[in-house]
């Protein structure tokens, strides 16, 4: 398959078929189409409850969606600037349609996100992921994120035990973007 190209051209403003992918800000109307697919995109894990509509209503300025020329959902990133630490941006969710993986789309979404939050004064990007999500861990390491110290090292990765409550251990990743 030809390497995908993510552009900043919005689907609304495209004047001719470009066979490119289009990146735009997230909208409230993206909520249902995204929650319908995420469990499948996460390999059958139940994660849709972690994406309530509030993210689509109140975090539009830095959260993004990628669509193809047919306006099909290709990828999305939900993130925000920390209310408590204005120099920290947080990536809550990123997902790429399984048909479009390993083509640099998530990398491009992250590059755009870093630029946007840098312009807002952020110097650090943080996120957490599940120790079981090996694909996410590999991707974030490849993107230059470092796992913060944990209570236990599992298969070479520091894990913070019960981070999200009993039994919900997490890997906490951080990257400086100065
Ligand atoms: C993780 C995910 C977002 C990566 O998206 P992607 O568009 O395929 O990633 P990219 O093509 O931009 O990859 C960027 C780099 O990470 C590497 N990478 C991506 N996924 C990888 C994986 N599963 N294993 C190892 N390396 C991986 C790529 O090879 C690439 O490396 P390179 O720069 O040396 O070429 C995607 O697999 C996904 O949606 N997974 C399910 C949802 C999920 O787990 N999200 C993260 C937690 S919120």
What does this structure look like?
This protein has 178 residues and is of the alpha+beta class. It has two domains: 1-121, Aminopeptidase; 123-178, no CATH class. Helix content is 22%, strand content 28%. The protein is built from four helices and ten strands. The protein has helices at 31-41, 54-58, 105-119, 134-142, and strands at residues 6-7, 21-25, 64-67, 73-81, 88-96, 124-129, 146-147, 152-154, 157-159, 171-176. Strand 4 and strand 5 (88-96) form a beta hairpin. The N and C termini lie far apart (35 Å). It binds coenzyme A. Coenzyme A (COA) binds next to strand 5, helix 3 and helix 4. Residues 41-42, 93-96, 101-107, 129, 133, 135-136, 138-139, 142 line the site of coenzyme A.
Care to give the gist of this entry?
The chain has 178 residues and is an alpha+beta fold.
CATH architecture of the largest domain: 3-Layer(aba) Sandwich
Average of the residue pLDDT scores: 92
Distance between the termini: 35 Å
By secondary-structure content and strand pairing, the structural class works out as alpha+beta
CATH fold-level topology of the largest domain: Aminopeptidase
CATH H level of the largest domain: which superfamily? Gcn5-related N-acetyltransferase (GNAT)
Beta-strand proportion:
25-35%
User: How large is the count of helical segments?
Assistant: 4
Number of strands: 10
Describe the secondary structure blueprint for this structure.
Layout: E1 6-7, E2 21-25, H1 31-41, H2 54-58, E3 64-67, E4 73-81, E5 88-96, H3 105-119, E6 124-129, H4 134-142, E7 146-147, E8 152-154, E9 157-159, E10 171-176
Parallel strand pairs: 1-2, 5-6
Antiparallel strand pairs: 2-3, 3-4, 4-5, 6-10, 7-10, 8-9
This protein binds coenzyme A.
């Amino acid at each position: 398959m030809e390497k995908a190209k993510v552009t900043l051209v919005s689907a609304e403003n495209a004047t001719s078929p470009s066979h490119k992918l289009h990146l735009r800000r997230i909208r409230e109307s993206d909520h249902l189409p995204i929650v319908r697919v995420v469990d499948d995109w996460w390999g059958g894990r139940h994660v849709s409850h972690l994406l309530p509509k509030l993210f689509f209503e109140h975090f539009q300025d830095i959260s993004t969606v990628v669509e193809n020329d047919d306006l099909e959902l290709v990828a999305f990133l939900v993130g925000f600037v920390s209310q408590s630490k204005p120099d920290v941006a947080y990536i809550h969710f990123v997902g790429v349609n399984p048909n479009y993986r390993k083509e640099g789309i998530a990398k491009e979404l992250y590059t755009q996100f870093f630029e946007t939050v840098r312009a807002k004064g952020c110097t650090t990007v943080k996120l957490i992921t599940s120790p079981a999500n090996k694909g996410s861990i590999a991707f974030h390491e490849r993107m230059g994120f470092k796992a913060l110290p944990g209570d236990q090292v599992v298969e070479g990765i520091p894990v913070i035990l019960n981070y999200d409550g009993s039994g919900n251990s997490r890997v906490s990743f951080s990257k400086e973007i100065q």
